[in-house]
Amino acid sequence: MRIFDPHIHMSSRTTDDYEAMYAAGVRALVEPAFWLGQPRTSVGSYTDYFDALIGWERFRAAQFGIRHHCTIALNPKEANDPRCREVLDVLPRYLAKDGVVAVGEVGYDSMTKEEDEVFSQQLAMALEHDLPVLVHTPHRDKLEGTKRTLDVVREAGVAPERVVVDHLNEVTVKLVKDSGAWMGFSIYPDTKMDEHRMVEILRQYGLDQMIVNSAADWGRSDPLKTAKTGQAMLDGGFTEADVDKVLWQNPVDFYGLSGRLTLDPLPGFTGEAVTFEGNSVLRGARK
């Protein structure tokens, strides 16, 4: 089993996580820019963070055999803080960097006027830089937030096939599928979505444009939820090719729209895919 985790916040994870992810089959990932857990009060704190995403974290992941990419944006939660608005002025120079494969996370937290404005501005930047878009749907009033998201994307003139709408569930998946956008699901221990519910969604809606991620961050989360979803798919009767489509080919196809993916094995690593055989895991090895 080879895995591309298309949404995981590795800045909040340890090197033990990187080792476990590689052992489970993760060979590439995307780390979206996000809220750090407390308010940032200046543009400088953002630029330091963005520099870490395109530099240090990319280097750190490579030490464990994993190709690191990121998305860059002013996230929805901080769009409401006037101290953060100047970040929009520095985004263009980061959106031009190697390894930046989308504009994101953008979208809604509380669905305020400020979030509307910042969302629209960043969709315009995505068009200007010819990048796909990663959209965060709100934790509260998710259905209305998803409807509003799709309306704003349409009004901005961004093609739906260049957008992944994330953190979906059984209530919102059909809405996004019907729009033509990619469907993102965050698999969590307690909230959002679990691997068994995910299998049923795949059974009902098919595998096309389905993106499964761990979205692991500062809170209770699990960076191996992608692999666990793959195992649940196999246990549920899906084939290894089905698992590869959902956990590798789909995120590669979506983020490949950026033209900036790097997926060849890192020097010093075998690059062998990890496969499931029965209930045991056959692990790729470091040279």
UniProtKB/TrEMBL annotation:
<protein>
    <submittedName>
        <fullName>Putative metal-dependent hydrolase with TIM-barrel fold protein</fullName>
    </submittedName>
</protein>
<dbReference type="GO" id="GO:0016788">
    <property type="term" value="F:hydrolase activity, acting on ester bonds"/>
</dbReference>
<dbReference type="GO" id="GO:0046872">
    <property type="term" value="F:metal ion binding"/>
</dbReference>
<dbReference type="InterPro" id="IPR032466">
    <property type="entry name" value="Metal_Hydrolase"/>
</dbReference>
<keyword id="KW-0479">Metal-binding</keyword>
<keyword id="KW-0378">Hydrolase</keyword>
<dbReference type="InterPro" id="IPR012022">
    <property type="entry name" value="UCP005295"/>
</dbReference>
<dbReference type="Pfam" id="PF01026">
    <property type="entry name" value="TatD_DNase"/>
</dbReference>
<comment type="similarity">
    <text>Belongs to the metallo-dependent hydrolases superfamily.</text>
</comment>
<dbReference type="InterPro" id="IPR001130">
    <property type="entry name" value="TatD-like"/>
</dbReference>
